[in-house]
């Protein structure tokens, strides 16, 4: 995946959340002073060669920037600052997190495999795991569907928004 940073002094303010456009382009603020970072996952048949971690800057210019500018008109005048490429790590079974006690190993709990959106899920996953360890059950959110059973039973949790 490629991630790009840019500067746009007239862009959305501090109240702007992490935004994923319906086209797949995403961005968030990167600190203060009009700095942002974002990108867009390519279609599966256009994935870059995983052995080459160089950034394709044309991908930003041709695919991402037009979508961002359509969503946020101020981004028509953005100035790209930097970029990097890296691997998108994910749970290959169903691209969803695995949360809870291991089915065979006593006293082993996991919160893993959140496929790049772990930071977004971390507060809820952490609280749920703490409830499991301390109380022996979920209290605030019932996250049993993220448990190991679906992997053991071979039944992926379908989520079309991933």
From TrEMBL:
GO MF annotation list: oxidoreductase activity
Keyword set, alphabetical order: Oxidoreductase
InterPro entries for the chain: FAD-dep_OxRdtase, FAD/NAD-bd_sf
Gene3D superfamilies, per the entry: D-Amino Acid Oxidase, subunit A, domain 2 (3.30.9.10), FAD/NAD(P)-binding domain (3.50.50.60)
Listed Pfam families: DAO
Annotated FAD dependent oxidoreductase domain residues: 13-132
A Gene Ontology BP annotation from the UniProt entry: mitochondrial respiratory chain complex I assembly
Record GO cellular component, one term: mitochondrion
Purpose of the protein: Required for the assembly of the mitochondrial membrane respiratory chain NADH dehydrogenase (Complex I). Involved in mid-late stages of complex I assembly.
Cited PANTHER family: FAD-DEPENDENT OXIDOREDUCTASE DOMAIN-CONTAINING PROTEIN 1, SARCOSINE DEHYDROGENASE-RELATED
Protein name: FAD-dependent oxidoreductase domain-containing protein 1
């Amino acid at each position: 995946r490629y991630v790009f940073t840019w500067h746009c002094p007239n862009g959305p303010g501090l109240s702007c959340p992490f935004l994923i456009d319906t086209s797949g382009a995403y961005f968030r603020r990167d600190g203060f002073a009009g700095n942002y970072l974002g990108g867009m996952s390519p279609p599966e048949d256009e994935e870059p060669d995983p052995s080459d971690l160089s950034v394709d800057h044309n991908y930003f210019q041709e695919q991402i920037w037009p979508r961002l500018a359509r969503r946020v008109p101020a981004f028509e005048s953005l100035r790209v600052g930097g970029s990097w490429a890296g691997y998108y790590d994910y749970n290959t079974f169903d691209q969803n997190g695995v949360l809870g006690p291991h089915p065979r190993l006593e006293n082993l709990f996991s919160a893993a495999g959140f496929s790049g959106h772990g930071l977004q899920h971390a507060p809820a996953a952490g609280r749920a795991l703490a409830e499991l360890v301390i109380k022996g059950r979920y209290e605030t959110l019932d996250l049993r569907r993220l448990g190991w059973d679906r992997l053991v039973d071979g039944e992926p949790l379908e989520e079309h928004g991933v």
